[in-house]
Amino acid sequence: MKDGESMNSFFAKQPIIDLNGVTYGYEMLYRTAPKVPFYDGEDGDKSSADVINNIFFGDGDKEYLNNKRAFLNFTENLLLQKTALLLPKDQVVVEVLENVAATDEILNCCKELIENGYIVALDDFVYSAERAVLLDYCQMVKIDFRNNTKEQIEHTAAQCRLKNKILLAEKIETNEEAEYAKKLGCTLMQGYFFAKPLIEKGSAYSPMALTFSKLINELRAPDADMDKIADIISSDPFMTAKLLRLVNALKGDMANRISTVKQALLMLGLKKLTEWIYIVGLQSLTPQGPDERVRVALFRATFCRLVSIMILDEFSFDDEMYLMGLMSVVVDLNDKETMTAMRLSNNIIDGLSSMSGVYGDTFNFVLDCEQANWAGVDKFVTTYNLDGQEILRKYIECLNKVQMMCFLTN
After folding, report:
1. Sign of the torsion formed by the C-alpha atoms of 84, 90, 95 and 100
2. Each residue of 358-396: pLDDT tens digit?
């Protein structure tokens, strides 16, 4: 797999319904192939991270949740890494897997999630003296109606009712089981009786391994430099796109638009960035250097920056111009809605979508250079009263710089 190509990943989506038959949310389950009907992954951390990356930090605006909640499996490591806090609290249910021990650290994680407005569910919970304490650190309990005895199901349901927990019956396959679950107090259900899981193809891009490695090294430094971190992320258009989607997920109600990578990082903060990098690192990082789309993105970004300085005779807008060029290979240039959802600045959106104003003229000029459209190049040079020879020198400078950047990532 090359950088910038979609990861070959899949996940299953199964609806969870209420007593009125209305979909409350979807169980999101990792799959290794489109026709594999069960979980056959070997690494729970990576499997859950893969699903999270596809749903919330994928490559486009594909809507998997239909404004419902995603029920996501969380391993002990993901809970301790506070991964759930990176996700929008109104869109997820944090499922604590049945093999997660009820340690003080885990209980504190669950408490923190609830205090921050998240819903915590115990997955495949069977009541026992050792796990009883978990009931004080969740709002919802999932009971497996297929692999537990009638005695276990009824005892667990009774203990949960005493604690006023929301009960979710899973693996319901017949009408009789559904009616039985209702009598036990279950108000949410899932299973083949209602719908089989629908396999979805993942859409997350793989970041460059070198980008990730450099980022980790800088974040581990006692005096991590935000400018250096911004430069590292800016060298990888797909890592940049993931960052923008993360900021949007966490700051969905913010009014500010994003003009630069550094601005996005300042909104996020080093703590959240470090937590996010853990999730990115669990993906299949590709070891190869940049593919052609990454090269194109770096060329456009670098040349937009150089040209903008010549036009505006200052550095005030060069980072914004760089981000515009970088995002040009990630987004659909005709899809203003997605660019708006990513909270890109209006300058960038107008430049990429309508190619209007100085941003649009600059981006269009860079495209003309790529395509050897010399009439368009001459028009731009004349319009902005530029030195053609100087433009040529900047063009060559840009090509050499990008070539060196790509060489260093191989």
Report:
1. positive
2. 999 999 999 998 888 889 999 999 999 988 888 888 888
Q: How far is CA 196 from the centre of its chain?
A: 26
Helices (H), 269-291: 270-281
Q: Where are the alpha helices (DSSP H) in 282-387?
A: 292-312, 318-327, 336-341, 346-353, 357-370, 374-383
- The model carries a pTM of 0.64
Are 258 and 344 in contact by the 8 Å Cβ rule? The answer is yes
pLDDT at residue number 39 = 43
Cβ count near 81 (within 10 Å):
21
Q: Which residue's structure tokens are 């679950």?
A: 181
Picking from 394, 231, 208, 214, the residue whose alpha carbon sits closest to that of residue 295 is 208
Q: How far apart are CA 94 and CA 114, in angstroms?
A: 10
Q: Are 344 and 332 in contact (CB under 8 A)?
A: no
Closest CA to 12 of 138, 190, 249: 190
Structure tokens at 235: 């060298």
Residues 193-205: tens digit of each pLDDT = 988 877 666 655 5
Cβ-count burial of 291 within 10 angstroms (0-12 exposed, 13-18 middle, 19+ buried)? Answer: middle
- Quote the DSSP letter at residue 91: S
- Residue 225: phi, psi to the nearest 5? -100, 120
CA 406 to chain centre: 25
Phi, psi of 386, rounded to the nearest 5 degrees: -100, 165
**301 close to 236: Cβ distance less than 8 angstroms:** no
State both tokens at 82.
Answer: 């506070």
